[in-house]
Structure formats: C-alpha cells, structure tokens
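dumping these here so i dont lose them again. two proteins, back to back, each one seq then structure tokens. dont judge the mess
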Amino acid sequence: MLEVTIDGRPIHAEKDECILSAAKREGIVIPTLCHHKALAGLGSCRLCIVEVDEGSGPKVVASCVYPIKRAAIILTTSEKITRLRRGILSMLRDRAPQDPYLQRLCAEYSVPHSTRYVLPPKLKCVLCGRCVAACAALGNGAIATVGRGTAKKVSTPYDTDSSDCIGCGACAQVCPVDAIACIETKDTRTIWNKTFRLIPCERCGVPWVTKEALDVVREKTLPGTHGHVGFCPDCRKKEVLFTTRRL
C-alpha cells in the first residue's frame, strides 16, 4: 500500500492503482465522461485531469489511466485544473449541447457560452471512444474512429453496414451522450445502417437479442456453463433469484 494525499486528505492506495479509482473509493469526486467501469481506461475526454506532484514538480495527467507508483500530492480542483477543465467542457458542450450531464458540469464550473469552437453539425458524438472500446472488447471491431480534426467521427468502414456488426447494441448502451442511433421495433433492431431480427427469450418469449449476438455469447461461454444465456436480462435475474432462494 502507498500513501498519497488527494486534496489535502491522506489516503492509502494499491501500487499501480489509477488515481481515479483511489479517489472514487474515498468519496472524492472527479468528473469523467469516457470512463466506464466495464472498460479499460481511455483517457480520451480529459475531463478527469488532475495535478500530480511525485517530488519533481506538478504535472497534469488523466486520472483514469495514471497509475499510483509512489507517494504523491494530488490536486483535483486546483486553479490550473479548474481552468483547463472549463475549456474542455466548453469544447465538449459544443459537440453535445443538449446533454444533461455536460450541461450540469458546465453550470458547476461556470463555463461561459462561447462560439470559439465552431464545429460542423454532429449527432452529439463527443469522441470519447467508449463505443469503439466496447465493440473491441467483444472481439468484433465493427466500428472505429475515422477522419481527422473536426471531421473525425465514429463509423463503420466506408459508412456502410458492417459484416462484423452483430447488432448487440453494446456501443449504444455505453455511449454517455446517447449519440448512437439504435432503433427497435417489436422484433427488429436497426443500428449502424443494418437491421437485425430479434429472437425471443427462452423463458418469457419476448424478442430481445439478435441471433448474431447470441451466437457470439455462446461461443465465448465455457462449455457446460451456457446456463440461461438465452434468457433476457429480466428473466435471467429472476432465475438467479429463484435459484438463490432454493439454496
């Protein structure tokens, strides 16, 4: 265990634990956007920047990916960090002006309205990279960031339907600003220019998952442990609860 000081509060942290994790455990709030507990740190949105001094002077780092390796003094709301975070929020708000979370943070940090960053119209995407990371974690890589500068975006190859997309919807689920269009009817799901047929839950009969996504899950599940893979999330929870009560 290592002892570090965050905003004047001494805390203990595991060696190589990221600053964000240690701060969160102690109830110290650091704003984030690209961070997701189910994904590896991305450090792309930069909202979680903090100042770290490990003995050789302060430096600005992304707390979601910066590992604690030695005693350090960490500041999450210094004058410099507040100024930088305010600028980052201004740019993010320009890309997703209607997002409630960004609106709240902008109000909290007193971010003035500005036309400094003139960007072309976007579908709210803040280029945090969560969706790309979620797709990669499934081993599909159906989407990626393409282009440069203000033309940079997340898309499928050549903006067409991707043969690698399984319609799982994980990308839309982890998007922090609801930028990914995922349209569902009673038995279909349309995402990334591709329409999938939804198959029914093996317990309640309600269509909920694409065959392609279910096949991938079954392929990655250890033999003999498929269990209730074909159950929708609600039925899976009920089955787990029922089994637990029986035990």
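---- next one ----
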Amino acid sequence: MALYTYKTSNPAFSRDVWKGYASTSNKMTVNGIIVKSFFCILLVITTAFITWKLEIIGFNINSIMYGGLIGAIFFSLLTAFIHRLAAILVPLYALSLGFFLGGISIYAESKFKGMPIQAIGVTICTFFFMLFLYKSKIVKVTERFRSVLVVAISIIMTIYALSWALHYFNIETPFTILDNSSYLAIGFNIIASGVAAFTLLLDFDFIERKKNHVPRYMEWVATWGLLVTLVWVYVEALRIMKKIALN
C-alpha cells in the first residue's frame, strides 16, 4: 500500500497533508519530532505559567484564555492547509494553547486543589503507556483498528458538538446531561479519554510509516498532531476528575 493512502483520525496526519513528498532528500526523522515536541511543550508551559502569574496579580484572564483558544484554532487551521509554514505556525499554536490551558487549569485549581497537576501526570503516563503498547506490539494498529477508532472519534466529536450547541441554547436533552456529573456523563468521558489515548497509537504508527519519506519541515506538522491528541487526553482527564470530585 502506498504511503500516501494511509488513514488516520488525526487531522494533522490526513492524506492531503502528507501526499506528494516522497522525492525530497531532506527527510523527517523521529528524533527531529521529539526535539520539536519538547520545544513546543516548553512554549505551552511558558504561556500557561504567564497566565498563572497574571491571575495571581489580579488580572482578569478570561480574555487571555478565550483569545488563546481562538488563536490555537486559527493556527491549527493554517497548519492543516499551509504546512510549509508549520515551523512558524506550530510554535504560535503552542503559545496560544498555553494561554488557553493555563486558563482552564487555573479554574480547575480554584475549584479542586491539585487537580491540574494530577491531570498532567495522567497525560504523561498515558503517553508513555501507549508508546510502550505500540513499541512492544501488544496492541497492533491494523486496518480494522483504525476504522473502528475513526468511527468512535467521529461519534464522540458529534456528541460533543451537539452537547455544546444545545447547552448554549439551554435545551435539555440526553446530550446536555453529559455536561453534569452524573454517572452517565462520567462514563462517556471515560470512553472518550480511552479513545483519545488510543489515538496516540495511530499517531505513532503514522509517524513510523512516514519517517524518512517526507520533508524535514513536516516534523512540525507531526509535532502539531501529537499536541492535538495530548491536549485531548489532558482535557478529558480534567473533566473526569472534576465530575468524580462533584459526586
């Protein structure tokens, strides 16, 4: 099967982003992705720390948090369509993401002391556990595995979109129930967090297949894809912990 036909659920690793690069001599490497990932995580930590400092001195961080969210979405979209500029766009995405994550982490800390640190720990453990499962071949990424996971992600994202839209208009449905701390809501978030974790396997497998076959600047796009999945894992961890704490 040709490399450009490989399927994945992460938009950062879609076929359109990666096809047509097999003839380039300066190729993507796993080490390059690791270095860039650590660099971007450092950027996220930096702006998240700045957000915490601003909160401490009494600054209203709501505008920063929502501005960070808008910026992260904006730079993500640009990265998806203009990947040759990923070396600029992905660091900007990471900086914006830090403002947003800093804001929601401050809110979580104010309600449940120590929860953000615990969620970070869960995210880190999840990453290395899934990497272990992938490298040890305990879980193999087959075509059926990809298909099932893609369907699961599509369903979860659809439910989230419906839940947020209905909640905005104050319409009570089984979807809006997922916003509370019921056992149904907790169960849904546990399933969503599991799907998010297994999405890392798709990312690892895709990077493994693409290494030494696409240009080096695509390392930034791969870094962006990993960040997208890790943020999803972190947010789901926060949501589960918050709902369990409220029970």
